[in-house]
Write a structure and sequence with these properties.
72% of the residues lie in helices and 0% in strands. By secondary structure, the chain is an all-alpha fold. The protein has 2 domains: 1-101, RNA polymerase sigma factor, region 2, helix turn helix motif (Rna Polymerase Sigma Factor, Chain: A), CATH 1.10.1740; 105-187, Orthogonal Bundle (Arc Repressor Mutant, subunit A), CATH 1.10.10.10. Helix 2 (23-46) crosses helix 3 and helix 3 (49-66) crosses helix 4 (76-98). The longest helix is centred in the N-terminal third of the chain and has 24 residues, at 23-46. It starts with 9 loop residues before the first helix and ends with a helix.
């Protein structure tokens, strides 16, 4: 086998992992094949490199423990992506409750003039605070669509939800975020 894991199919990787003689190599190929994409999925949710490294380690650890039971109803990447998003959201939630993410004052208002004056970090914190107020499903749909630029069809396949329901979730998420950014409150 070559050291280039980008050409190895899910089936080959899974068969390597299930064979005790090639399990370690299969796990390495699995990680090399998906690590960079999963890194950026997590990074868009947790925001810092250090936090992303922590979450990616947890993601792969959880995946390695469950790989032998992988049922193949989706691609390995889709399955790993779901684990990564769940781990990243759980990490952010724990950081929010632990006080690491700076909460935005509920009465803070942003107008167009202020927007020009604000630095990127302040804008990002306000967006993060607005996203944190969303219900989990809307948060997930918003993150997939806005940060990952995933199509509704791809999300439908990944989340096993209709395109219409996803569009509605995204629409409501955007309205809530806009309301928060404009008024400092959720609609």
């Amino acid at each position: 086998m070559t050291s280039d894991s980008s050409n190895i199919s899910d089936e080959v990787i899974l068969s390597m992992i299930k064979d005790k003689d090639t399990k370690e190599m299969g796990c390495r190929y699995f990680m090399r094949q998906h690590q960079e994409r999963i890194y950026w999925v997590i990074r868009k949710i947790v925001m810092t490199h250090e936090d992303t490294d922590d979450v990616i380690q947890n993601t792969f650890l959880k995946a390695f423990r469950a790989l032998e039971n992988f049922e193949g109803r989706s691609s390995l990447y889709t399955w790993l992506h779901r684990i990564a998003v769940n781990e990243a959201l759980a990490y952010r939630k724990s950081q929010l409750s632990g006080g690491r993410i700076i909460p935005i004052d509920q009465h803070t208002k942003i107008d167009a003039g202020e927007f020009d004056q604000m630095n990127a970090e302040t804008i990002r914190r306000k967006l993060d605070a607005a996203i944190e107020l969303l219900p989990e499903k809307q948060k997930e749909v918003f993150s997939l669509r806005y940060f990952e630029e995933m199509s509704y069809q791809e999300m439908s396949e990944k989340l096993l939800t209709s395109v219409g329901a996803l569009k509605a979730s995204y629409h409501f998420a955007v309205k809530k975020i806009e309301s928060y950014l404009e008024n400092g409150t959720e609609q």
